[in-house]
Design a protein that fits this description.
The chain has 768 residues and is mainly alpha-helical. Helix 2 (60-108) packs antiparallel against helix 3, helix 10 (314-347) packs parallel to helix 14 (437-455) and helix 17 runs antiparallel to helix 18. The chain crosses the membrane at residues 63-84, 116-142, 162-184, 263-282, 315-335, 355-376, 435-457, 463-482, 494-517, 523-543. This is Chloride channel protein. It is found in: Membrane.
């Protein structure tokens, strides 16, 4: 379902031409950079007779072991994600640092052409490597990964998004792409990385690569793995910004569709582990054992620690910052959506075009980063500067570049640098007169458009850091324009500008506020930060949706939002449920079961009892395709249509019905049965969920959507209003709640009137 403020163009997914016209349990979406089939997840526990008997047989020791392993996995997630986050920063700072040092030394020697060639070729090789391994090894690793993880936590399962090779390519590809001076970030890929680590641990490792641990295979259902993936996404943000509380709130506000207090405690535990491990590793680097890491890097130092002094009159400038930031953020989302759609048409031509586009963006970026500082005038070194001027080497506010002795190039200090160092320079205190306003303006425009062009390439790329650096340059530029009319220094304006641009693009408030406060280590900024985030988000909501919702819509993920469209209140579930409906008898012939499984792609089948087992047809429950395949593989068949005796359940183990990992599941084509077996019978009663969620056909579609989303269902059974009809009208799946399906059935419904109203009154989007 699209966000209520999404523009008309965004309401048409890129894959609309590939979707089936009729309702189907199988759909497709763009996962990473490839088109893949997607399915829904089973977050509902199947309460069948076998499940109940298995739980009754568990001892207190087994229950304690189950709870203990949850906490242990949260601990492992925190340890592994923090080590990966530290390694990412260590690798980027040293790779990019060596590149900048070599290039700077050549320029100091007057070898500008050779410096340009070294800089451009190095960036091209790094980008080519990142795009090649992504395109050929793990296409699911392309992009930030946040839309894929967010869709998964909403109940959408896509192949390979959490596989081991996706994890490796995400780490190595992001290091290579960021080191190649592309204007992309590490935070989004770290969220995906944390989710991959959590998923792999939750399924006991990776069978494909022989990395399995039987003692970890306790979490064999989608609900437990969903909780672990939520922990992993929070740990990823905590490792990116050294913001443990911000990571918890990010998972709550942006990622998770379901939340409870027990999950909150475990996520907080994971992010606390991340913070402790990072602190220990940073202390090691401060002793000079990490090469160039420690002389820059966003997670290394407090980028702003000066006491803030502001007055009531500064509120007006903050209001202006928030309004303009909201407008710029929504415009940023609009352009990014257009660019992603354009890139998709290029990618349809083949893998080679994906790599060529990435290399072209790399060359264009290198030319801008190297050439633009030559347009900036050289500034004389300020008297009493706190650091060496001009700066020789890795980082600093006074890059010499092409300037004579005693002068520095302020634009080079921003643009000819890593993103982390650029943010540190923009946030720095006591630097109100070190940057010329034209240099900051050029830097803002460059970052604004380069980040849009760079995000869609076939490589692991995040949006957090590019949005922060773009917003920081915008905020500092506003501070320079206001000058003495405000009591806030330019570093504070940069922090607030980053907040306003983040709020305008990503539409988060609480989590962004805490992340920026933890990042800057300045609690006195809290009132101003809250104000600018609220204003920028409110302004931007009047134009379009947040960036991740737009990307999910473009990719075609059937995401269920936490609000309903007004026209859904005019419809009942009976208006949208479609057929044909496939039903099994409680005791069904094996041949019939095999035929239905081969002729349909459905993943859930109602089980109905009729004569002689019941006086009239009655709904017994729902059985999953995966469970039926397990029964067929066990070949526990009956020669006559009679029920299983109680001893038959002892032939099965709970692990046999457990959810498989991220690899391919069982298929009916893999089950070979003889003619004799096909003429036998199978009792489905003990393995059917005898208490599935059901609704009357007269329930409003809006009310059914709330139930479907809040409980985390895959199937919602629709029963008739009167008893003189068959016991089941149909089954609602995620696809039935998608606007494309509803409006396809009811073309007379028009959303234009509601859309115009919501644009004028955006708060209507939050009214259920």
């Amino acid at each position: 379902m699209p966000n209520s403020t999404t523009e008309v163009s965004v309401s048409v997914p890129l894959l609309s031409s590939l979707r089936p016209a009729t309702n189907s349990s199988s759909q497709v979406a763009i996962v990473g950079s490839n088109v893949c089939p997607i399915e829904s997840l089973d977050y509902e526990i199947a309460e069948n007779d076998f499940f109940k008997q298995d739980w009754r047989a568990r001892s207190k020791v087994q229950i304690f072991q189950y709870v203990f392993m949850k906490w242990m996995l949260c601990f492992f997630i925190g340890i592994i994600v923090s080590l990966i986050g530290f390694t990412n920063n260590l690798a980027v700072e040293n790779l990019a640092g060596v590149k900048f040092v070599i290039t700077s030394n050549m320029m100091l020697a007057g070898r500008f052409t050779m410096g340009f060639l070294v800089f451009t070729v190095t960036n091209l090789v790094l980008t080519l490597f990142a795009s090649a391994i992504t395109a050929f090894v793990a296409p699911a690793a392309a992009g930030s990964g946040i839309p894929e993880v967010k869709a998964y936590l909403n109940g959408v399962d896509a192949p390979e998004i959490f596989s081991f090779r996706t994890l490796l390519v995400k780490i190595v590809g992001n290091i290579s792409a960021v080191s190649g001076s592309l204007l992309i970030g590490k935070a989004g890929p770290m969220v995906h990385t944390g989710a991959c680590v959590a998923s792999i641990l939750g399924q006991g490792g990776s069978k494909r690569y022989g990395l399995t641990w039987r003692w970890l295979r306790y979490f064999n259902n989608d609900r437990d793995r969903r909780d672990l993936v939520t922990c992993g996404s929070a740990a990823g943000i905590a490792a990116s910004f050294r913001a443990p509380v911000g990571g918890v709130l990010f998972a709550l506000e942006e990622m998770s569709s379901w939340w409870r207090s027990a999950l909150l405690w475990r996520i907080f535990f994971s992010t606390a582990v991340v913070a402790i491990v990072l602190r220990a590793l940073i202390d090691v680097c401060l002793s000079g054992k990490c090469g160039l890491f420690g002389k820059g890097g966003l997670i290394m130092f407090d980028v702003y620690s000066e006491d803030s002094s502001y007055h009531l009159g500064d509120v007006l400038s903050v209001l202006l910052l928030g309004v303009v930031g909201g407008i710029l953020g929504s415009f940023y989302n609009f352009l990014l959506e257009k660019v992603l759609r354009a890139y998709n048409f290029i990618y349809e031509k083949g893998v080679a075009w994906k790599i060529v586009l990435a290399c072209a963006i790399s060359i264009f970026t290198s030319c801008l980063l190297f050439g633009l500082p030559f347009l900036a005038p050289c500034q004389p070194c300020p008297v009493g500067a706190l650091e060496q001027c001009p700066t020789i080497g890795r980082s600093g506010n006074f890059k010499k570049y092409q300037c004579p002795p005693g002068h520095y190039n302020d634009l080079a200090s921003l643009i000819f640098n890593t993103n982390d160092d650029a943010i540190k320079n923009l946030f720095s205190k006591n630097t109100d007169f070190e940057f010329h306003y034209l240099s900051v303006l050029v830097f803002f425009v460059t970052c604004f458009f380069l980040s849009i062009l760079s995000y869609g390439i076939v490589a692991p790329a995040g949006l957090f850091v590019p949005v922060i650096v773009t917003g920081a340059s915008y905020g500092r530029f506003v501070g320079m324009l206001l000058g003495s009319n405000s009591n806030l220094n330019h570093g504070l304006f940069a922090v607030l500008g980053a907040a306003s641009f983040l709020g305008g693009s990503m539409r988060m408030t609480v989590s962004l506020c805490v992340i920026l406060l933890e990042l800057t280590n300045n609690l006195l900024l809290l009132p101003m930060m809250m104000l600018v985030l609220l204003i920028s988000k409110t302004v931007a909501d009047a134009f379009n949706a947040n960036i991740y919702n737009l990307i999910m819509k473009i990719k075609g993920f059937p995401y269920l939002f936490n609000h309903v469209e007004p026209y859904m209140r005019q419809l009942t579930v009976g208006d949208v449920v479609t057929g044909p409906l496939q039903v099994f008898n409680g005791i069904e012939k094996v041949e019939t079961i095999v035929h239905v499984l081969k002729s349909t792609n459905h993943n859930g089948f109602p089980v109905v009892d009729g004569p002689p087992h019941a006086a009239a047809p009655v709904l017994h429950g729902l059985i999953l395709r995966a469970h039926i395949l397990t029964l067929l593989k066990k070949r526990v068949f009956l020669s006559s249509p009679v029920a299983f005796d109680s001893k038959a359940l002892a032939l099965f183990k709970a692990d046999e019905f457990a959810k498989k990992g991220s690899g391919r599941g069982d298929r009916i084509e893999d089950v070979e049965l003889s003619e004799e077996e096909l003429n036998m019978y199978l009792d489905l009663h003990p393995f059917s969920n005898a208490s599935p969620y059901t609704v009357l056909e007269t329930m409003s579609l809006a009310k059914a959507l709330v139930l479907f989303r809040e409980v985390g269902l895959r199937h919602l059974l629709v029963t008739p209003k009167t008893s003189d009809r068959p016991p089941l009208v149909g089954i609602l799946t995620r696809h039935d709640f998608m606007p494309e399906h509803i409006l396809g059935l009811r073309p007379s419904l028009s959303r234009s009137r509601w859309k115009r109203l919501r644009i004028r009154l955006p708060f209507l989007a939050y009214i259920d």
